[in-house]
Amino acid sequence: MNVIKAGELLGHNGPVYTIVKSVRPNHIYSGGSDGLAVEWNIITKAAGTVVAKVDGVIYSIATIGERFIAIGTDRGGIHIIDLELKKEIKYLLNHTNGVFDILYLEKQKKFVAMGGDGSFSVWDSQTYVCEATIKLCDAKLRCAATDTTETAIAIACGDNTVRIFNIDTWTETHSLANHSLSANVVKYHPNGQFLLSGSRDAHLNVYDVKGYNLVKSIPGHNFAIYSISFNADNSLFATGSRDKTAKLWDAETFEVKLRISKDSHNAHVNSVNKVLWVNDYLITTGDDRAIFLWMI
What we know:
This protein has 296 residues and is an all-beta fold. The chain has one helix spanning 262-265; strands at residues 4-9, 16-21, 27-32, 36-41, 49-53, 58-64, 68-73, 77-82, 87-93, 99-105, 110-115, 119-124, 130-135, 141-146, 152-157, 162-166, 171-176, 183-188, 194-199, 203-208, 213-219, 225-230, 236-241, 246-250, 256-260, 272-278, 281-286, 291-295.
């Protein structure tokens, strides 16, 4: 397996904390400490277009249908941006600390926000009414993911646990206490059989979703794991870490296939905060402000 740096997207003037797929093909959104939400064309690699400027640090961005994006900040607020009107139409304030992740539920027409105050909130994506706020712990909630049927949601919690909730009833069904430090990221395997979690303890945990029993606990990185993303055919997944590297893994055996680092590939010089696979590109970003595109 070989990896080639296929491009760089430069323009942010501070750490970049999130990258997500745009509503348009071959485009992504990014956001970070400069308060800018930027759209990029990963084919032309041209200068990015600012779609929103908000007060505070952007921790999370989610696409809401085809027309809107939701932006979560360090101030606990969520900015709703109308992409057609090119302006903010709503500001939602429910959390008292940062909003670290926003997850859109297509079937439910709702979105959930993970708060730094240890609670998550459930919102109607058409009326923007908060339907529920559920407190889990006194530590930050970092990430959420749904299973392939969108009936369960997994939440990475700062109290070292991963919590599983039924989406229809918003009741907790499982609490997984297999990390020794904060759980930072969760991701369901596209094959529907496994849930993956990454932690500040640098371990990658694999659970069987039938009973959420721990299958493997792998020392995946030297420092905290922040992000997980699968490629288009689900044969590989990538992880990003505070140890300044991204790793490629075999999605069937959970064995490391390749390590992307500054020394080996002229990659990031600081923490890798987010990895994202879009079409044939693995995209990585982090505290060094750069967004790199990799061809595997």
